[in-house]
Design a protein that fits this description.
Elements lengths: L8 H13 L6 H8 L3 E11 L2 E13 L5 E8 L4 H17 L5 E8 L7 H17 L8 E5 L5 H14 L26 H14 L2 H6 L10 E5 L3 H14 L2 E7 L2 E4 L6 H11 L9 E3 L12 E4 L18 E3 L8 H10 L2 E3 L1 H4 L2 H15 L8 H22 L9 H6 L4 H26 L6 H19 L3
Parallel strand pairs: 3-4, 3-5, 6-7, 6-10, 10-11, 11-12
Antiparallel strand pairs: 1-2, 2-4, 7-8, 8-9
Helix pairs in contact: 1-3, 1-16, 3-16, 4-5, 6-8, 6-12, 6-15, 12-15, 15-16
The structure holds nicotinamide-adenine-dinucleotide.
Length: 476
């Protein structure tokens, strides 16, 4: 069979962008200004490890500075390249606009397989990379604020924050130079789970709209739906865990690097996750069927497919075989432009990455605001809220004393009503609100215009329109 020609990741993003602007009325100059990536910085630096100097290549790309700071994760993976960071930076611009976080788009990456290094080596490499970026203001609380992505997490963000603070000893806002930090280093409750939580909230909002569920050829609620997840890392693990334990969904397939696990009765997500952490993969996990060719499980019969690992996994070679009527793109760019077209023709509904995984940047925004305000969310109002609730409860108790036993509060009402919201509850509330509003803004365009037939183009239209307005307001 002749090799199929796929566009690169960045070309894929541009093709999707072009499809949307084709339906908009933007001056060509402005359209081009929004599409292009403003700048990409490539750095090569040496670190002395194991007795010799090793050279690493890293990137930080800034797609759009219509709002600053610009924001986007830093990825550690061996396949990182300029095309990929530029595609991811562009997606960040549109994502931030769609969920109304006041940032431009950026992304960074380091060509490295983090599993090949000891923790202290990774610290040296990360600090050196952070130094190179900070030196050029590509890490800076008011200009460019990274976050975790594939291969990085809280630990790396804490090193970056500390490195920046060492270089800027008098900057009172230094902690706001990066998000996704651990709580004890200026992080916020709920950031680790945020992207997976956002996927859950996105699906909940989708299933609140029966018309949309019908468009995917399904009915009912999330309860009992069969889900296949690819990648049980930060995003995939949290999404799968919450959907199974809180919404009654069944995780019937988990795909990892070394193969997949399937079980029609539903997999125990936490047990599989523990197995991966301890054994480095899913192979030999006892309570499920192991499939060596993991990618084949993307084609398994299920209700919802959640690609949560890497880009381009649903492409021209397998799009026709995908059976899930609903795909939610937890990863960035998991469906290529060519596959997107095939799936759209088949009637598959795709909840696009730009929206689906925006939970991370949303809670990162809350963390950045927390760092700049130097106070934990809820600290001022929590006890005051509780005191006001106490007034109502006291009054209800006084009335029930008069009315007798027939009129009494439910046993747990008092305790639940009295408790003021802590930071985690506020973060979840802000995230839920963001995901609901952003979904409705896409949905309005999806159902409101005859020339828009899918959520992705709707998302691009909403996002590009906002970016365009912002450029216009600047006089461009
Ligand atoms: P992660 O490194 O925590 O997890 C990735 C998982 O995918 C790992 O378990 C890895 O083993 C698995 N994986 C890698 N290659 C695979 C393959 N070929 N087949 C199956 N599984 C494979 O990364 P993450 O932070 O969860 O990010 C995953 C995706 O979500 C990326 O596309 C990232 O850009 C996107 N994303 C992440 C965040 C975030 O907050 N972390 C936010 C938005 C988007």
């Amino acid at each position: 069979m002749a090799a199929v020609q796929e566009p690169s990741f960045r070309q894929s993003v541009d093709l999707m962008f072009n499809r949307a602007v084709g339906l908009m009325d933007l001056p060509p100059g402005l359209e081009q200004k929004i599409r292009v990536c403003n700048a990409t910085y490539t750095v090569r630096f040496g670190v002395r490890l194991r007795g010799e100097i090793q050279t690493f290549t890293g990137y930080r790309s800034v797609h759009s500075e219509h709002m600053e700071p610009v924001k986007g994760g830093i990825r550690y993976a061996i396949g990182v390249n300029q095309d990929e960071v530029e595609a991811l930076a562009a997606l960040m611009t549109y994502k931030c606009a769609l969920v109304e976080t006041p940032f431009g788009g950026s992304k960074g990456g380091l060509c490295i397989d983090p599993r090949q290094y000891e923790e202290h080596e990774l610290e040296l490499i990360t600090r050196r990379f952070a130094y190179e970026l900070a030196k050029r203001d590509l890490i800076n609380p008011s200009q460019n604020v990274p976050a975790p992505d594939m291969g990085t997490g809280e630990r790396e963000m804490a090193w970056i924050a500390d490195q920046f603070a060492r270089m800027n000893t008098t900057d009172i806002n230094a902690k706001a130079c990066v998000t996704g930090k651990p709580l004890n280093a200026g992080g916020i409750s709920g950031r680790v789970e945020a992207t997976g939580r956002g996927v859950q909230y996105a699906l909940r909002e989708f299933f609140r709209n029966p018309e949309d569920v019908k468009a995917a050829g399904m009915e009912g609620k999330l309860d009992g739906k069969r889900i296949v997840v690819q990648g049980l890392g930060n995003v995939g693990f949290h999404a799968a865990k919450f959907l199974a334990s809180e919404d009654g969904a069944k995780i019937t397939g988990i795909i990892e690097r070394d193969g997949a696990l399937v079980d029609d009765r539903g997999l125990d997500v936490e047990a599989v996750h523990r197995w991966i952490v301890n054994h480095g993969g899913v192979k030999d996990y006892a309570d499920a069927t192991y499939v060596e060719d993991g990618a084949k499980v993307l084609e398994q019969d299920c209700d919802i497919l959640i690609p949560a690992a890497l880009e381009g996994v649903i492409n021209l070679t397998n799009a026709n075989n995908i059976k899930a009527p609903l795909i939610i793109e937890a990863a960035n760019g998991p469906v290529t432009a060519g596959a997107d077209e095939i799936l759209r023709k088949k009637g598959t509904v795709i909840i696009p990455d730009m929206y689906a995984n925006a939970g991370g940047v949303t809670v990162s925004y809350f963390e950045w605001v927390k760092n700049l305000s130097h106070i934990r969310f809820g600290r001022m109002q929590r006890r005051q809220e509780e005191a006001r609730h106490q007034l109502v409860v006291d009054e209800l108790e006084r009335l029930s004393d008069h009315l007798g036993d027939a009129w009494s509060m439910k046993p747990d009402f008092k305790q639940r009503y009295l408790r003021g919201a802590d930071e985690l509850e506020l973060v979840r509330s802000g995230l839920d609100d963001t995901m609901r509003i952003a979904y409705q803004s896409m949905r309005e365009v999806w159902h409101g215009r005859d020339d828009v037939t899918d959520l992705r183009v709707a998302a691009y239209i909403v996002a590009i329109d906002r970016v365009a307005k912002s450029y216009r307001a600047k006089g461009l």
